[in-house]
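Hello Y.,

Per our agreement to keep a running log of every chain we model this quarter, I'm adding this entry. I've kept the format consistent with earlier entries: sequence first, then predicted structure.
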Amino acid sequence: QVQLVESGGGLVQAGGSLRLSCAASGRTFSRYFMGWFRQAPGKKREFVSGISWGGSGTYYSDSVKGRFTISRDNAKNTVYLQMNSLKPEDTAVYYCAARMLPDYCSAYECYAYWGQGTQVTVSS
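Predicted structure for the entry above:
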């Protein structure tokens, strides 16, 4: 069983920054491919970013590429999402997710464990 707890969301003006954190339980955290997803009201949950177990492989959706940076600290069982140059369209609930296989996948169905989500609101 893996438990994921997100933090760091909040209200920020357009152009601002936030850093999300996701703390994971479990001794094998370093073996998980980790992802960040988001869901805006009335929209489907969408892939935002993912990171391989060692951190060398990082992946981004086109909508956040160049603005967001994903990283992980396996010693702390934590994955981060640094969000810069935020836009109102980034407003959503952001979810951390763990995939039980080491390879990249952006589909919702690939992830077995999910956090409760953290709200990010970007005002114009």
